[in-house]
Specification:
Number of helices: 2
Order of helices and strands: HEEEEEEEEH
Distance between the termini: 212 Å
Largest sheet: 5 strands, mixed
Strand order of the largest sheet: 2-8-7-4-5
Shape: elongated
Structural class: alpha+beta
Helix content: 10-25%
Strand content: 15-25%
Length: 230
């Protein structure tokens, strides 16, 4: 009885160890059922030297040895990451078998599209949490940003300039003759010069020395006329 009880205890203790999984592709760091409950990588803390490329079209294959469980797929960025907060997939399994798991790398930052990384698979079942890791090099296509169109070389249309409005003609001098008076302009004779003696002279008024000479001649003539009268 004691031997049978001891055997049953041993089988019960070994049962959780029999409920496990392993990563087939990409290759796991290592697999040991006895330490697979140790986070983050099931007891294997050193990264693998070989790192296959891992991209959107890569295969992620596991061998599942339990009858039911949920697998969470996580990604850590870096050569030997400890942060596996980026979840890239999940699978709910109901029987033992080999499964190709689907995952989505669209949430990986573009700056890490070619980085070293580690895939972590975490199994949750009635046996608790189990872990396993696979080291990879990410190979995610980088979407190029569309090139903005270059500015056109054609000149930008200029707003129409205000058309020059015709300058109004300046009032030009009338070409028609100035109205003539109906009466002929009276031509007044130029006023005759008056001699100092009181009588008018017949010629134009002289100025300066000429007027003095003319005055002398007029005086002589006046004297002669007076002598004849006497």
């Amino acid at each position: 009885m004691i031997a049978a009880s001891a055997l049953a205890l041993l089988l019960g203790a070994a049962a959780p160890a029999a409920a496990h999984f392993t990563i087939s592709a990409p290759p796991a760091r290592g697999h040991d059922e006895l330490v697979q409950d140790e986070a983050p990588c099931g007891g294997f803390n050193d990264p693998s030297a070989a790192r296959p490329a891992f991209g959107p079209s890569s295969q992620l294959t596991v061998r599942f040895a339990d009858t039911a469980g949920e697998l969470g797929i996580f990604l850590g960025i870096g050569a030997n990451p400890s942060d596996f907060s980026l979840q890239i997939g999940k699978a709910v399994l109901s029987q033992r078998g080999v499964y190709n798991l689907t995952f989505d790398l669209s949430a990986v930052p573009a700056a890490n599209a070619k980085s070293l990384a580690t895939v972590q698979i975490r199994s949750e079942s009635e046996h608790g949490s189990l872990f396993e890791c696979a080291d990879v090099t990410l190979d995610i296509p980088v979407k190029s940003s569309p090139t903005p169109p270059s500015p056109s070389a054609s000149p930008s249309p200029m707003p129409p300039s205000p058309s020059a409005s015709p300058v109004p003609p300046s009032p030009s001098a009338s070409s028609s003759p100035a109205p003539q008076s109906s009466q002929p302009a009276s031509q007044s004779p130029a006023p005759s010069a008056t001699h100092a003696g009181g009588y008018p002279t017949d010629g134009p008024v002289l100025s300066g020395a000429s007027s003095m000479a003319a005055g002398s001649l007029a005086a002589v003539a006046a004297g002669a006329v007076a002598a004849l009268v006497l």
